[in-house]
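Q: What structure does this chain adopt?
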Amino acid sequence: MPRQRIHVQLDGLVAVHAVRAVWTALGAVPGVLSADVSMQGATIEVEGVLDRAALDAALAMAGVSVRALRVEARVLPIL
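A:
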C-alpha cells in the first residue's frame, strides 16, 4: 500500500495541551503511521487510504475539527 503525507489544518487548537490530545487521538485512526502536531495543525503519514470518518471522530473526541486537509503530491526520484 502506498504511503501518503497529509497536512491538516485544525480548528480548536487553543492551548498547548490540545496538541498532545490531538497527537494521542491520531494514534487511534487506522492507517496513521506517524503524526507531527503543532499549534498550526498536523502533518500525518498514512499507509493506504485515510478513513476520513475515523479521522473526524478521533479529532472530535480531542475537541478539535478539520478546517482543511491537503494531500501532499508524491514525487518519484529521478535516477
